[in-house]
Amino acid sequence: MQFTDAERSALFRLLEWRRDVRHFLPDPVPDALVEDLRCAMDLAPSVGNSRPWRVLSVESAKHRQAVRAIFGEANHRAASAYQGAQLAHYQSLKLEGIEIAPVQLAIFTAQDPQEGAGLGRRSVPQTLEHSTAMAVQNLNLVARSYGLGVGMVSILDPEAMAQLFAVPADWRFSLYLCIGWPQHNDSQPLLHRNGWQQNCQTSWEVV
Ligand SMILES: Cc1cc2nc3c(=O)[nH]c(=O)nc-3n(C[C@H](O)[C@H](O)[C@H](O)COP(=O)(O)O)c2cc1C
């Protein structure tokens, strides 16, 4: 199997426009599309084929409000790491879309899944989290191919998230996803555009 030049260029266009989204329209997302996102996650690679991601679709207002409160507390704590102008800048940033995003997913990772019988993760246990991250990226790319935006939220206390959703003891909170139609699209990261962090040189060395 090999992509044509046109297909490859479409793939790179998708990567470029994948940008994290925090400003959503309230319009609903069709169920069939959400189902496609689920399929996209299930196509991800995982250590030992363990598929450790555990996804909760958060629909109730009660749970969404609770997540927003957990975000508020974590964000307040995070802000205390900054001072002066940088603090003011941090406080001006929009770092979640929990109020509006029509689809919201709480993603957990099973820490000792039976599936895969431990293959591949004995030396680097974080490979379970890496596997979840890959499934999230699959979702992200397929969502963007539909024009949907995905916003990742990690400013949340993992213990509070586990308690809120009363998850099994071996599920560890990984990420919260806000998904919906973006208010606008951009090929630049928002943190780049608002002056927090320019894209840096990444490292790729020959040894
Ligand atoms: C693991 C992970 C966690 C993230 N958590 C947050 C978050 O809590 N709030 C937020 O606004 N953005 C979050 N982001 C989005 C990043 O800020 C964003 O990816 C980065 O600024 C680069 O922008 P881009 O995704 O648009 O290229 C997260 C991204 C990743 C990969």
From TrEMBL:
The keyword Disulfide bond does not apply. Its EC number is 1.13.11.79. Keywords: Oxidoreductase. This is 5,6-dimethylbenzimidazole synthase. It is an enzyme of class 1 (oxidoreductase). One of its GO terms (molecular function) is 5,6-dimethylbenzimidazole synthase activity. Residues 16-181 form the Nitroreductase domain. InterPro entries: BluB (IPR012825), Nitroreductase (IPR029479), Nitroreductase-like (IPR000415), Nitroreductase/BluB (IPR050627). Transmembrane segments: none annotated. It holds the Pfam family Nitroreductase.
